Amino acid sequence: FDQLDGQIWMNGEFIPWKDAKIHVLTHGLHYASAVFEGERAYGGRVFKLTEHNQRLHDSAEFMGFKVPYSVAELDAATIELLKRQGFSDAYVRPIAWRGSEMMGVSAQANRINVAIAIWQWGSYFDPAEKLKGIKLDLAEYRRPDPMTAPSKAKAAGLYMICTISKHAAEAKGFADAMMLDYRGRVAEATGANVFFVKDGVLHTPDPDCFLDGITRRTVIELAKRRGIEVVERAIMPEELSGFSECFLTGSAAEVTPVSEIGGKWTFTPGKISETLMNDYMKEVYPAAAVAAE
Ligand code: PMP
């Protein structure tokens, strides 16, 4: 992935993609002092760009550092980079990390670096295919207690258990893994939030120890617009057999129906999943049409 053409924005400059390198003693690499975002551009416009860049700032604050570019500067850099890359449907990855000036757990003087990369990612969307649903494993690792990790930050370190869990799930033929939280409650997938349907009502876990996703909040809003009741509460795994539908939400996942969790609980993607899947795609695209004018 480091040999693509095009440009990457790094510390205020647009540089060739292949030259966007860091030193092997980078603090962010050794101690995971890095925060990042995952965004999508639809029709040449990044959906909820400012919210993502604000969250990058907030994540950095949880980690005890400040992103040295304002949200407005990051927005402008992203818009310019998207134009330079020439993509209309793309994935956007900003990241901020502590540099390599000092080595050790403490790295107060290390420069905070920031980069933005954008790569092409078509918003391929075949509703019939998506509605078959994906199968999830049940992860062994749990989302940590907020007293154990900055669980509200989109911090690189928190993805360590996500990669382990996703790899373990993939090795068993599952698409992804469902993670419980430190109390044993249903939490989220390795890169997406989760919703369930019961008797026409949406149920989703309280995001008190994991990301309250931007897509999650968007889908709650879309559901309410449709008059669908949304209940945010603690959900125990024992309850899963009582739900008819299940889907994941995330900037990358969009709305992805789930057909099975842990080989134990099954769901049939239905009306509500389909409605919200379509409403979400409508929500991300009209903004793009406006931007293109
Ligand atoms: N949880 C995790 C662990 C994630 O990586 C993501 C993707 N950023 C989400 C939830 C969903 O967040 P969003 O809708 O803001 O992309």
TrEMBL record:
Pathway: Amino-acid biosynthesis; L-isoleucine biosynthesis; L-isoleucine from 2-oxobutanoate: step 4/4; Amino-acid biosynthesis; L-valine biosynthesis; L-valine from pyruvate: step 4/4; Amino-acid biosynthesis; L-leucine biosynthesis; L-leucine from 3-methyl-2-oxobutanoate: step 4/4. Its cofactor is pyridoxal 5'-phosphate. The keyword Protein biosynthesis does not apply. It holds the Pfam family Aminotran_4. InterPro entries: Aminotrans_IV, Aminotrans_IV_CS, Aminotransferase-like, B_amino_transI, BCAT-like_C, BCAT-like_N, BCAT_family, Class-IV_PLP-Dep_Aminotrnsfr. It comes from the Bacteria. One of its GO terms (molecular function) is branched-chain-amino-acid transaminase activity. GO terms for biological process: amino acid biosynthetic process; branched-chain amino acid biosynthetic process. Keywords: Amino-acid biosynthesis, Aminotransferase, Branched-chain amino acid biosynthesis, Pyridoxal phosphate, Transferase. It is an enzyme of class 2 (transferase). It catalyses: L-valine + 2-oxoglutarate = 3-methyl-2-oxobutanoate + L-glutamate; L-isoleucine + 2-oxoglutarate = (S)-3-methyl-2-oxopentanoate + L-glutamate; L-leucine + 2-oxoglutarate = 4-methyl-2-oxopentanoate + L-glutamate. Acts on leucine, isoleucine and valine. NCBIfam families: ilvE_I, PRK06606.1, PRK07544.1. Belongs to the class-IV pyridoxal-phosphate-dependent aminotransferase family. This is Branched-chain-amino-acid aminotransferase. The gene is ilvE.
